[in-house]
């Protein structure tokens, strides 16, 4: 195998969808009948948790607080988890070694994966050697996140994911991890839109407002389906004004013990991998409520009117004045 997993895996992932050779046609026809790697584990039930909701809502702040618990590891954003799940289902008929290669390539090809700061070669070698009964997506993803833990935080025993875009893949994620929990962090949509535009993540308020509205609808509808034991809402404004109260509730939800140093969010940031991003500058400050209501000070009057109109229904539902 080539020394670089990405080059090798990309070659494999191109080969199978295109299926140039007669050998591949025969192999695919045979494997679709005799080989189909399952999504779920038959014996192990993993219980990760996912911080969901719109971006620019305090997701990364919550990550810094939760990872003060030695047992918890949360990598930088994964970006492609939904795609990984779709690709696994699409190519589940592949030989396991090839499927693991595709799995690695999807993660590695995204530019944001460099922030994880890990080599996937050791993970790949472990993955292809999994016993036949453990060759499923649930176990593979668990191995992947715990590989990150083994490099960055060996004492961790449970992993979480903090990727806002996962909000649009909650159904597939829930299918893989049926015991998982979800923390929906909600922030005033006007501040979210203002932050998106100021950070250069959206170039106009219309797109940013649509993203916030859609994230709210999807996450809350999902929460109603899975119930309060697996879904918990926290408002950004409450988290920064009453951090101890809110973190105690979140810890209770996750089955964790609250620790005072969870409130020291701006310590140990060098271990996070992405804290130096320009749009995470506030992480270097102690928890404070100075970002609440920034839209009133920073957004033009025409944009304020437009965002108010675009977000009014959800703002009222969420009791934002």
TrEMBL record:
Keywords: Transferase. One of its GO terms (molecular function) is protein-tyrosine sulfotransferase activity. InterPro entries: P-loop_NTPase (IPR027417), TPST-like (IPR026634). Pfam families: Sulfotransfer_3. PANTHER family: PROTEIN-TYROSINE SULFOTRANSFERASE (PTHR12788:SF10), PROTEIN-TYROSINE SULFOTRANSFERASE 2 (PTHR12788). This is Sulfotransferase. It comes from Halobacillus salinus.
């Amino acid at each position: 195998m080539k020394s670089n997993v990405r080059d090798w895996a990309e070659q494999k992932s191109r080969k199978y969808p295109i299926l140039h050779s007669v050998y591949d046609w025969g192999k695919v026809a045979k494997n679709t009948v005799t080989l189909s790697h399952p999504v779920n584990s038959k014996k192990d039930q993993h219980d990760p948790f996912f911080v969901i909701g719109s971006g620019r809502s305090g997701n990364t702040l919550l990550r810094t607080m939760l990872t003060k618990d030695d047992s918890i590891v949360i990598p930088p954003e994964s970006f492609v988890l939904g795609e990984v799940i779709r690709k696994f289902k699409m190519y589940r008929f592949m030989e396991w070694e090839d499927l693991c290669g595709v799995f690695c390539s999807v993660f590695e090809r995204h530019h944001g994966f460099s922030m994880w700061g890990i080599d996937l070669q050791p993970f790949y070698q472990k993955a292809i050697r999994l016993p036949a009964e453990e060759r499923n997506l649930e176990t593979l993803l668990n191995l992947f996140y715990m590989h990150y833990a083994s490099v960055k935080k060996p004492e961790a025993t449970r992993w979480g994911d903090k990727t806002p875009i996962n909000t649009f893949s909650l159904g597939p994620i829930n299918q893989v991890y049926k015991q998982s929990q979800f923390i929906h962090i909600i922030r005033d949509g006007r501040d979210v839109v203002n932050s998106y535009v100021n950070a250069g993540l959206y170039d106009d308020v219309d797109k940013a407002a649509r993203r916030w509205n859609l994230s709210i609808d999807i996450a809350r509808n999902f929460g109603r389906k899975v119930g309060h034991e697996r879904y918990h809402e926290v408002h950004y404004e409450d988290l920064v004004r009453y951090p101890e109260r809110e973190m105690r509730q979140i810890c209770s939800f996750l089955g964790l013990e609250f620790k005072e140093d969870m409130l020291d969010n701006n310590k140990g940031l060098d271990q996070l991998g992405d804290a130096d991003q320009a749009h995470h500058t506030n992480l270097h400050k102690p928890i404070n409520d100075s970002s609440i209501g920034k839209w009133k000070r920073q957004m033009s009057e025409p944009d304020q009117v437009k965002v108010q109109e675009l977000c009014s229904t959800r703002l009222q539902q969420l009791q934002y004045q």
